[in-house]
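Budget justification aside, the reviewers requested a transparent look at the raw inputs and outputs of the sequence design task funded under Objective 1. We therefore reproduce one unedited record. The lines immediately below are the structure tokens for a 567-residue chain.
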């Protein structure tokens, strides 16, 4: 098929080698498919390239030659805007010269001696095809701002390095700018572009001291494929120093993820790992460098398994909703007031999987809705069961995740759920984290107003962990504030922490809503919160989260105590 195509439109190939036998061998391999011209040194080659630049499809270039060597030809072609689109395949027996040639703009290489004819034909044909399709050597394959390789160009070379040099220990490095959109917003796009160019220039300077290639992968992400370094912190410090010098007022922070070389891991997967390491420290202003290690690899395997097993877990009811009681502490003795629904996963092979493991995973992958829907249904069913079985109607709080906010059928499904079990809407309380409000303020406020109009009560969870302004709080439709447990943890030992609790309680009074304090574990914490005016608490002081059967027995005990006190 290739041959018939060439006969219709023969491409012109220039073979450059100072050894006549090498020129003859390559000519015999290619002459049935291409029109061939020859040069015996770099000077002759440049003359022919200039003469045939509008027709020349590819140049096969020896590196070691008299008069002018192949590296000089590469340098000349790369710097000539009329010639640099012509692909060059280097011919060499020196493996150490291959990467240097690629860095200078070579499209591929063929190793001497020329004994694998089909491989040579395939490489020449592929490079011509890529060149004519402008898929490899074209201006579009470079980032126009930094002039670094684009993603496709970068991985084409990285894969070749990995394939032809399996013993080169090439690490994957991902550099990202923390909150780059804020840098642009505060300082202007021109300043942001300058930051990107400076980083690109400094990475190029680093690679001039070692072997490697680089790319601007996304708006604020740079990928580096380089020989292993013992100290990547030095590279990060070097880049950070350059960008920090740009402005005394702009706070620009870089983070870096590194995936060390592994013989059995191809570049794209290696960069996925480096990116995962870099993402793990997003927003962490103490740690700026993360190296992908065996622990992270095992975590990735576990995460993929959990993602694969989620549907089965829902269908086969491996997920169990536990309930943690909330107590009204402004009465004596404290009285069971409501509960929070918390999910647990009893995996048939892995045992009890911590929600701290699978909840962030499913949130990040957009599958948390399956878990949320399961919890909502189980909680509503359980409220109705306790009502009918033991005569107690107890409100239960359930979580709304960020993903749920974008579900156009959310109101309809929640309304149908409470009606299905004959519940008052206020019995299924909806918890939304403070960060969800601040991330999608207008959309969230609109949704919450609609849910409240349906009769649902809204609790702002983890209050104090986000960045709500007082002005913003006054606009937020909420019925309860849940104080983040970090406020409570040290109130018995830190006057400052207790003062912060008092500030939260003052805010709640301003908003005219009650406060739930989470994480109460000691009698001292309980008494201090009660004295400060906090209405509701939950935590291990009263009870850990309980499975439905145990929680039912707790309700019955509380009911009996209440009757005894009344008597």
């Amino acid at each position: 098929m290739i041959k018939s195509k060439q006969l219709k439109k023969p491409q012109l190939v220039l073979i450059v080698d100072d050894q006549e036998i090498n020129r003859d061998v390559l000519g015999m391999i290619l002459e049935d498919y291409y029109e061939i011209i020859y040069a015996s040194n770099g000077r002759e080659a440049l003359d022919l390239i200039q003469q045939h630049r509008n027709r020349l499809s590819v140049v096969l270039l020896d590196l070691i030659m008299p008069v002018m060597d192949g590296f000089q030809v590469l340098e000349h072609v790369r710097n000539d805007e009329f010639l640099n689109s012509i692909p060059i395949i280097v011919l060499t027996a020196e493996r150490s010269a291959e990467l240097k040639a690629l860095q200078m703009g070579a499209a591929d290489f063929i190793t001497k001696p020329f004994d694998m004819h089909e491989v040579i034909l395939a490489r020449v044909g592929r490079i011509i095809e890529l060149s004519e399709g402008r898929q490899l050597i074209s201006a579009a394959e470079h980032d126009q701002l930094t002039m670094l390789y684009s993603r496709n160009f970068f991985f084409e070379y990285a894969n070749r390095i990995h394939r032809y040099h399996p013993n080169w220990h090439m690490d994957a490095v991902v550099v990202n700018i923390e909150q780059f959109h804020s840098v642009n917003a505060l300082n202007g796009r021109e300043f942001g572009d300058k930051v990107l160019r400076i980083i690109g220039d400094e990475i190029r300077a680093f690679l001039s001291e070692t072997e490697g290639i680089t790319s601007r992968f996304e708006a604020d992400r740079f990928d580096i494929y380089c020989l292993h370094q013992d100290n990547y912190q030095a590279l990060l410090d070097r880049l950070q120093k350059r960008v920090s010098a740009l402005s005394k007022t702009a706070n620009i922070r870089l983070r870096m993820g590194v995936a060390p070389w592994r013989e059995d891991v191809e570049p794209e997967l290696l960069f996925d790992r480096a990116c995962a390491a870099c993402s793990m420290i997003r927003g962490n202003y103490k740690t700026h460098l993360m190296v992908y290690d065996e622990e992270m690899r095992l975590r990735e395997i576990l995460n993929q398994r959990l993602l694969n097993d989620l549907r089965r877990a829902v269908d086969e009811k491996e997920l169990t909703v536990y309930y943690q009681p909330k107590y009204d502490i402004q009465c004596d003795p404290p009285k069971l007031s409501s509960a929070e629904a918390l999910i647990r996963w009893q995996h048939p092979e892995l045992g009890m999987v911590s929600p701290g493991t699978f909840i962030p995973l499913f949130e990040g992958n957009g599958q948390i809705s399956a878990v949320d829907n399961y919890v909502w249904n189980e909680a509503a069913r359980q409220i109705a069961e306790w009502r009918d079985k033991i005569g107690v109607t107890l409100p239960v709080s359930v979580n709304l995740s960020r993903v749920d906010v974008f579900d156009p059928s959310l109101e309809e499904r929640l309304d149908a759920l409470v009606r299905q079990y004959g519940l008052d809407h206020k019995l299924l309380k909806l918890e939304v984290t403070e960060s969800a409000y601040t991330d999608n303020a207008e959309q969230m406020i609109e949704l919450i107003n609609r849910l409240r109009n349906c009769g649902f009560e809204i609790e702002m969870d983890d209050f104090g962990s986000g960045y709500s302004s007082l002005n913003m709080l006054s606009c937020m439709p909420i019925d309860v504030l849940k104080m983040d447990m970090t406020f409570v943890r040290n109130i018995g030992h830190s006057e400052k922490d207790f003062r912060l609790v008092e500030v939260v309680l003052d805010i709640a009074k301003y908003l005219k809503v009650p406060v739930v304090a989470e994480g109460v574990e000691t009698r001292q914490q309980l008494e201090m919160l009660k004295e400060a005016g906090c209405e509701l608490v939950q935590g291990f002081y009263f009870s850990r989260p309980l499975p439905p059967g145990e929680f039912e027995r707790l309700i019955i005990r509380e009911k009996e105590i209440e009757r005894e006190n009344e008597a």
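Residues 368-390 form the longest helix (23 residues). The chain has a mean pLDDT of 87. Computational costs for records of this kind are itemized in the attached budget.
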